[in-house]
Specification:
- By secondary structure, the protein is mainly beta.
- It has one domain.
- Helices cover 10% and strands 40% of the residues.
- It has two helices and nine strands.
- The strands form two sheets. Strands 3, 4, 5, 6, 8 and 9 form a six-stranded antiparallel beta sheet that branches. Strands 2-1-7 form a three-stranded mixed beta sheet, covered by helices on one side.
- A hairpin with a 4-residue loop joins strand 3 and strand 4.
- It is globular, with a radius of gyration of 16 Å.
Length: 134
């Protein structure tokens, strides 16, 4: 199993988007779960909780949530992948990357959609947030 999985962020829409391009690494040991919404192309990765929040709403575990938009374009335009079988969804590509490259330092997440003419999937956005309701 690789120690880190890598997501290559590709978005050439404008100068601001170009600043977000490049690899993003996630420690495999920190990933708790991931999910994919086929209608929107949003991949969500939940990282293990790391502490607690004792706000007025009561104690809750604190954790990180990573969201990334998966598309079939590299220029920032919409292009939600055609996924007709859960086994080929981007969240399953994350699991495949987590279990590949035994003893290696890094494995890259890649996927192909299931359109009549299959297209490569790209990770277009990358956002990390702290969530106190995990």
């Amino acid at each position: 199993m690789a120690q880190f999985i890598s997501f290559n962020i590709v978005n050439s829409l404008n100068a601001a988007s170009l600043l977000t391009e490049g690899p993003q690494l996630v420690n495999v040991d920190h990933i708790e779960s991931c999910s994919y919404v086929a209608a929107t192309g949003v991949l969500t990765i939940i990282l293990r909780p790391y502490g607690s929040d004792t706000t007025a709403t009561g104690p809750a575990l604190m954790g990180r949530v990573i969201t990334s938009t998966v598309t079939t374009t590299t220029n920032g335009t919409a292009g939600v992948p055609t996924i007709t079988s859960g086994i080929n969804a981007p969240d399953k590509a994350v699991y495949a990357a987590m279990t590949s490259n035994p003893g290696g330092a890094r494995s890259t997440v890649t996927c192909i959609d299931q359109a009549a003419v299959p297209l490569r999937c790209y990770f277009q956005t990358w956002a990390i947030a702290t969530n106190a309701a995990i």
